[in-house]
Specification:
The protein has 148 residues and is α+β, with helices and mostly antiparallel strands. The protein is built from five helices and seven strands; from the N terminus they run E-H-H-H-E-E-E-H-E-H-E-E. The protein has helices spanning 12-23, 25-31, 38-49, 94-105, 120-128, and strands at residues 5-8, 56-62, 65-75, 78-85, 111-113, 132-138, 141-146. The protein has a four-stranded antiparallel beta sheet with strand order 1-2-3-4, with helices on both faces. The chain has a three-stranded antiparallel beta sheet with strand order 5-7-6, with helices on one face. A hairpin with a 2-residue loop joins strand 2 and strand 3 (65-75).
């Protein structure tokens, strides 16, 4: 197996992996995002993510394993990007490489992200990928933008 990071279309089986990744209490705490039960999680993914043609989403694969996902969506007049990686894939550059690949497929600019301020790893991933911190803040979230 290789540690090459690649993107592919989301497959139905990926949703189970994404669900398990969201259930990780450390990841959920870092993201300040409470895990959903299976029914709510699957309904959200099937209707609001995969069922919405305005949403772009990819599965991030490393060495044949599903590492996580990257998604972009329009909301309130802006286009947003978010991602979720399993903890096994933190700290080795997978997040940055996955996001760079995704940004190459996602031509919309500006693109915004709003991680929790205390999630320094996520903020760092975004900055490494060219996002810049804006002075705007929404509660515990910071706002970053990719202009080019």
């Amino acid at each position: 197996m290789t540690n090459e990071v690649r993107l592919r279309a989301v497959e139905q089986a990926d949703l189970e992996v994404f669900f398990e990744q969201e259930q990780d209490p450390v990841a959920a705490g870092r993201a300040a995002f409470p895990p959903r039960d299976s029914e709510r999680f699957m309904k959200h993914w099937e209707t609001r993510v995969l069922g919405d043609p305005a949403v772009t989403v990819r599965t991030v694969v490393v060495g044949g394993r599903v590492a996580g996902n990257v998604v972009a969506w329009p909301q309130d007049g802006r286009h947003w990007v978010g991602y979720w990686y399993g903890r096994d894939f933190w700290g080795g550059g997978v997040g940055s490489r996955g996001l760079v690949l995704f940004l190459g497929e996602m031509p919309v600019r500006p693109l915004y992200a709003d991680p929790v301020e205390t999630n320094v790893g996520s903020v760092r991933v975004l900055e490494k990928c060219g996002f810049r911190l804006l002075s705007e803040k929404d509660g515990e979230h910071v706002l970053l933008v990719l202009d080019e």
